[in-house]
Amino acid sequence: MSKQGMQGSTASVRMAVLGALAALVVPAADAQESEIEPITVTAQSRSQSERDVPIAMQVVGEKQIGDLGAANLADINGYVPSLSVDASQPTQPVFYLRGIGASDFGIGTDAPVGVYVDGIYTGKTGGSLMNFNDVQRVEVLKGPQGTLFGRNSAAGAISIVTNEPEQAADANALVRFGRFDTVVTEAMVNAPLTDTTAVRLSAESKNSNGWVTNETTGQKMGGDATWGSRASFKWSPAADTKVVASWEHEALDQAARPGFSLVRVPAGTVPAIPATNAELINPLDAPLQNDAPDRESRTFDGLTVRVEMPLGAWRFSSNSAYRHFRSYNEESDDGTASTLTYLGTINAEVNSSFQQEFKLAAHDARLDWVAGASFYLVHADQASTVDTTTDSIDTLFSHNTGAPLFGLPLFGTLDQALGAPGLGLGNPWSEQMVNHSRSTAYSVYGDAIWHLAPATNLTAGLRETLDRKSVDWYVPAYSAPALDAQFAPYGGTFGQVAGSVLSALSGATVPPLTNIIFSNAAATAATPVSASHGWSNLSPRLVLDRKFGADTMAYASVSKGYQSGGFDVFSPLARFEPEHMTNFEVGVKGSVPAIHAAFEASLFRYRFTNLQNITLVSAGAVPVYDVTTSNQSAYGADLGGRVEVLHALSLFAAAEYLRQRYDQYSYADPLTGLPVSLDGQPVGTPLLTVSGGARLAWTTLGGRTELLVQGSHTSALRCNTQLIEEYSCLNTGTVQTGTAQSRVDLRLGWQTPDQHYGAALLVNNALNKQYVVTQQNGGQAAFTLGVPDATVTPPRFVGVELNASM
């Protein structure tokens, strides 16, 4: 065949394929809005097209949330490559952006990633991971956002925007049911009351029985039991004026996370430290055995009032909010059913906060500016409890040579000295740390966009922040009534008798034992002690952007972020200084209308100093929690794009490359107690995260059918000496941790021609991939009781969804 003939044949085939696809296309009148159209966002405290905002960001819309069946931010893990959310403990979630985050759950510190709902800061613990309830979009802003969002966003900000009441009647409902007896319900009613007022009511719930059985108790674990509601009222007396008042409530009450041990602990034996490869087990093949009580609960209430109105040539807005939550998390932290390693912990928090922000804004042909002032007040009470047994305390003493008995079991030694074998063993033992904190933050800020030329803008911003924190500590004596009763015939409580015996054995005066787990803290805070301190900071931002034609913008920025200093609730009177981040970034974003495509890309480099994190420090003695600090730096790239091949087929993808390292950090080796420097070593963040997918639509029975296939892949942890030592980077023939993770999700849905009714089939984790992940600091438990702790990601979920709308 001639070359011309071959070209003609190829063209015919191409036209035939395109014609076949075109036949599948939903008629234009029924087609949904194009996925490459820009979304209006408020990332810069202004309503702008996302392509006009010179910030690296990713927006997750209402449809994307629904397509995934996502209940909260953790369910979009992988699809926003820079964002990682650990929600295994929903009352103590951990957020990371571009590798920066903190696992500290103490009330004396803040977090470097701020979560905001309708402009209101949610805090870092019980109020920060709420279920999606009538959410319009989620804006994930990467890099420091301190100028506009404040001190709680040194590494970035997550802005969740909910739907407001509208002047049109609307209602919808959804029910989803599937594997593990899962039932999800959502409902919304929007109704105009008068020409200027409207109300919107929404509710959601999620319940499931869990995917794994705890063989110790027979209880199902890994399930959900949450529900929430929101009521909003909107008054719009004029086109440019509105008042929106909303109340939201959420309740969670479910089993705590299932904790898996990585080592086999036969009954009656004390695990070795460190474990050998032969002693390791794979949680994917081993039974779940948790013997401590488990329960996680939270009640949350919030009230918000937003006002927007003109004030002469300016625009005035006010945002007022009150938040209150009560959370409780009781769980097993040893992952075994052995009495010799029994360990349960309880974290209970009561938190009340008030926020007020006033803002003025205006714009003309040369200048677009916003200025504001804000106030934030929070009161928090926290009780941290360790529930264990005297048998576990003997294991603890045997493993930790820095204890008073130099590696000998405490009760075994007392029994021998008193001539009473078995005395004291088999009894419960409890210790508690009680804290109260009061934090205030005042700030003023301004951000201005100068239109230097028709296609060029210079943005400059600055925020001044004044912080003050006060913390109280109190460590009451241990609680072990049954144990004290057993020691009464020997001359007093257990603590008194133990002090006398240890004095006789050591030849030195040993006071009565009041605490073992919190012994260091009790030395300072056996009676309540308090501390207070203040900090201040200036957070600047400078951005230059330029439009190249109507569809492409490039930008370069430098910005600084600030995180307030604070106090270590586990080390009374211990204070640490503020965190600072400096970020340099260049980027480009835009569209190519000729091929129906949109794209964004950025290159960044940052340095984060004095990043705080909580660490369980053993170092040959009774382990204690301590706040450690590090300096870190990183460089990387963010990429993203969408393209509509036809109205019937769209493709999308996003990726992040991140190379992060410690500039300055050392930890105490848990075996030797000697300092180990990690300077220059990786922090652990994966090098690459990618996500992507395809959406195909066609007409069936006059309605619209969609097939969505999407997935993500995260490369393995970049391991360092500490992660290897703490079991976070295991690579044995038995078990692997810190490995690469992949995920594939599917959705096949159909909607009636009028879009009022529909049904869908959802498959999350379609390849049924499960991974073993060590808890933050969980691996360090290997050097206290010899039982490193891990979680396992859930298996495949298959569900059916029915929906209806007006």
Write the layout of secondary structure elements.
Layout: H1 3-24, E1 40-41, E2 48-49, E3 57-61, H2 62-68, E4 83-86, E5 94-97, E6 100-101, E7 113-117, E8 120-121, E9 135-142, H3 146-149, E10 156-162, E11 170-178, E12 182-192, E13 197-207, E14 212-213, E15 220-221, E16 225-238, E17 241-254, E18 260-261, E19 295-311, E20 314-332, E21 343-363, E22 367-389, H4 390-399, H5 410-418, E23 428-453, E24 456-474, H6 481-487, H7 494-506, H8 519-525, E25 529-548, E26 552-563, E27 566-567, E28 575-576, E29 579-592, E30 597-617, E31 624-646, E32 649-664, E33 666-668, E34 675-677, E35 688-700, E36 703-714, H9 721-725, E37 741-751, E38 757-764, E39 772-774, E40 789-792, E41 797-805
Parallel strand pairs: 7-10
Antiparallel strand pairs: 1-2, 3-9, 4-5, 5-6, 7-8, 9-10, 11-12, 11-41, 12-13, 13-16, 14-15, 16-17, 17-19, 18-40, 19-20, 20-21, 21-22, 22-23, 23-24, 24-25, 25-26, 26-29, 27-28, 29-30, 30-31, 31-32, 32-35, 33-34, 35-36, 36-37, 37-38, 38-41, 39-40
